[in-house]
Design goal:
Number of strands: 6
Strand content: 5-15%
CATH class: Alpha Beta
CATH superfamily: Glutaredoxin
Number of helices: 5
CATH topology: Glutaredoxin
Strand order of the largest sheet: 4-3-5-6
C-alpha cells in the first residue's frame, strides 16, 4: 500500500483538492505529475482515459515532489536528467545551465522552483518519461 496523493478513477475532475485528507489505497500503475494549465499534460490525462489506464494525478504545483521523490524519478528516467527542467524564467529565478548539469543540481533546482518541472511527467514502477510528445505518454500508459 502506498500513500495516494491524488486518486482519480479516469477523470481529472476527481482529483483530491489541496488540504483534503489523504487515504491509504492501492497504487495506480502510473503517476502523472500534472499541471491543468498545460495542454500536453491534459492530453496525457485524456490518453489515460482513452486507454482505460488507472493513474494517480499529482498536481505538482500544489503538492511538489520532495528531493527523495525526485531522486527516485531520476533513477527511472529514460530522458536526459536535464530535460526535467523547463527553461523558462531562468534569468528571473537565478537559474543557469550549470545549475542543472547534474542530477543533484536538477533536484536542487526543482525543490526550490517546482514550477520548472517538465510536464507531463509519467512514472511507473520501473520507468519514468516526459510525456512530450503525447505519444510517449500513450506508450507508457498502454504498456
Amino acid at each position: 500500500m502506498t500513500k495516494n496523493t491524488a486518486p482519480i478513477a479516469r477523470r481529472a475532475d476527481r482529483i483530491r483538492p489541496t488540504g483534503e485528507s489523504v487515504a491509504w489505497v492501492a497504487m495506480a500503475a502510473v503517476t502523472v505529475y500534472h499541471n491543468p494549465r498545460c495542454s500536453k499534460s491534459r492530453q496525457a490525462l485524456e490518453a489515460a482515459e482513452d486507454l482505460g489506464a488507472s493513474v494517480d494525478v499529482v498536481r505538482y504545483l500544489d503538492d511538489p515532489p520532495d528531493g527523495a521523490t525526485l531522486r527516485a524519478i531520476i533513477a527511472k528516467l529514460e530522458d536526459p536528467v536535464t530535460d526535467l527542467v523547463r527553461q523558462e524564467c531562468w534569468d528571473e529565478l537565478g537559474v543557469s545551465a550549470d545549475d542543472v548539469a547534474t542530477a543533484d543540481g536538477v533536484v536542487d533546482v526543482l525543490v526550490r522552483h517546482p514550477q520548472l518541472l517538465q510536464r507531463p511527467l509519467l512514472v511507473s514502477a520501473d520507468r519514468a518519461v516526459i510525456g512530450r510528445p503525447t505519444e510517449r505518454a500513450r506508450e507508457l500508459l498502454s504498456g
